[in-house]
UniProtKB/TrEMBL annotation:
Gene3D superfamilies: NAD(P)-binding Rossmann-like Domain (3.40.50.720)
InterPro entries, sorted: Ergot_Alk_Oxidoreductase, NAD(P)-bd_dom, NAD(P)-bd_dom_sf
Protein name: NAD-dependent epimerase/dehydratase family protein
A Pfam family it matches: NAD_binding_10
Domain of life (superkingdom): Bacteria
Domain NAD(P)-binding: 12-184
């Protein structure tokens, strides 16, 4: 498929991974249509067609898939059946789904993140569409939650400073998404993805300090204090799941997977690489 120009639909145009996917698709000469619920807020390069669409609202689907051969899809189960049905009648594009690690072994009864990704994967498996599932673990972008505090006081309040994650750069996920959309042989495959090393929260804060050239302090708070802080904006079940994951990761190196290197021949980007790319977010 590389070299053949097709229209690729990228959903969730304001998302971190979606933006990185758009840049890579343009770099390899693909025609890109971006769908966003708020296209006016999507900061996109010239040459990209932007369409206002909400995949959970079937009224916004007609026309969205016209001429589309490939789709980068966020795994939001709301509206997935309508989206799949629309795709099946519009030329059956290949769908690359941003899913998540734990989708098979996690418990959907207690973990809403597993539930959401499993529902989206199941809808694709039950369809006539070809698909590729990307199953990354913890995103490096999660630490953007510290950006406001670092810009203000340079103090990060976090529980479990020794909790590990093999945090993945959104560009690594985007590289694999674009590979799956532009090369043959990725249909029906599920790719577990991680960053190339396991780093603790304390080490992540040290990397940010290094990247911005200023001392950032990690001040340990209790799980309860963290739960209270998250509870102000988060759904209770999601907050419980996030806290549980931190407890499980405390002092335990996270698995490092070789999928990225196996598929690209390159080592994945480290968390230090990510902080260098995002230093301005923390300044
Ligand atoms: N965070 C993790 O550690 C992790 C790990 C594995 C899997 N995942 C999965 O990855 C997905 C999240 O990916 P992501 O980090 O690329 O998503 P993101 O940056 O959080 O954006 C997700 C979507 O939210 C919408 N959105 C709403 N308000 C926004 C705003 N102010 N700025 C930007 N986007 C906004 C955008 O869609 P519209 O433009 O249509 O509004 C966007 O595509 C989720 O499905 C998650 O479950 C996450």
């Amino acid at each position: 498929m590389r070299g053949v120009v097709v229209t690729v639909l990228v959903t969730g145009g304001r998302g971190h991974v979606a933006r990185a996917v758009v840049d890579r698709l343009l770099a390899v000469g693909q025609k890109v249509r971006v769908a966003s619920r708020k296209p006016e807020e999507a900061v996109l390069p010239a040459g990209v067609e932007v369409v206002k669409a909400d995949l959970s609202d079937p009224d916004t689907l007609p026309g969205l898939l016209d001429g589309v051969s490939k789709v980068f899809l966020y795994a939001d189960p709301k509206g997935i059946d309508g989206f799949v049905a629309a795709a099946e009648v519009s030329g059956s594009p290949h769908i690359v789904v941003l899913s998540a690690s734990g989708v098979e072994e996690g418990d959907p009864a207690t973990d809403p993140i597993v539930r959401m990704h499993r529902a989206a994967e199941s809808a694709l498996r039950a369809s006539r569409l070809s698909w590729t599932f990307l199953r990354p673990g913890t995103f490096s972008t999660n630490t953007l939650q510290w950006a406001h505090a670092i810009r203000g006081t340079r103090v990060v309040k976090a529980p479990f400073p020794n909790a590990h994650a093999s945090a993945i750069h959104e560009s690594d996920i985007a590289d694999i998404a674009v590979l799956a959309m532009t090369e043959p042989g990725h249909e029906g495959k599920a790719y577990p993805l991680s960053g190339p090393e396991s780093v603790t929260q304390r080490e992540q804060v040290e990397c940010i300090s290094e990247a911005i050239g200023r001392k950032v302090v990690l001040e340990e708070i209790t799980a309860e204090e963290y739960r209270d802080a998250l509870g102000r904006w988060g759904d209770a079940e999601v907050v419980d799941t996030l806290v549980r994951h931190l407890v499980e990761a405390d002092g335990r190196p996270a698995p490092v997977l070789t999928t990225y290197q196996d598929l690209t021949g390159e080592p994945g980007r480290t968390y230090a690489d990510w902080t260098a790319d995002h230093a301005d977010d923390f300044r």
